[in-house]
Amino acid sequence: MATKRSVGTLKEADLKGKSVFVSVDLSVPLDDNSNITDDTRIRAAVPTIKYLMVNGSRVLLCSHLGRRVTPKFSLKILVPRLSELLGVEVCALCSSMRSSFMNNSCELHLLG
């Protein structure tokens, strides 16, 4: 059985050239115009994401926003802020197929 490891124990040799799938809580509060009112959860994820990127991995983020499957809660809303904080282009890859376990899930692919 593999030993459980945290991101901090992974070194460049473990990460370089690898794709890393990260489940992250990016469910942030939005106002009535779909503007982020508190980006604390996004900012909390940035150090981990940057660590993975700096050590040569391709990062895929999976998250959800809100509790209902509606365009209002699309993760595309978070792309500009996440791109700004990371200093790289972020691309949202959302599936049009939804299932009960996927809820409003979506992957965010970091470019750069």
From TrEMBL:
SUPFAM superfamilies: Phosphoglycerate kinase (SSF53748)
EC number(s) from the headed UniProt entry: 2.7.2.3
Keyword Lipid metabolism: no
Pfam family of the protein (one): PGK
Protein source organism: Brassica napus (Rape)
UniProt entry keywords in alphabetical sequence: ATP-binding, Kinase, Magnesium, Nucleotide-binding, Transferase
Subunit structure: Monomer.
Record carries keyword Nucleotide-binding: yes
Cofactor(s) required, per the database record: Mg(2+)
Top-level EC class: transferase
PANTHER family in UniProt: PHOSPHOGLYCERATE KINASE (PTHR11406), PHOSPHOGLYCERATE KINASE 3, CYTOSOLIC (PTHR11406:SF27)
Protein's name in the database: Phosphoglycerate kinase
InterPro entries the record matches: Phosphoglycerate_kinase, Phosphoglycerate_kinase_N, Phosphoglycerate_kinase_sf
Family: Belongs to the phosphoglycerate kinase family.
Gene3D superfamilies named among the record's database cross-references: Phosphoglycerate kinase, N-terminal domain
Reaction it catalyzes: (2R)-3-phosphoglycerate + ATP = (2R)-3-phospho-glyceroyl phosphate + ADP
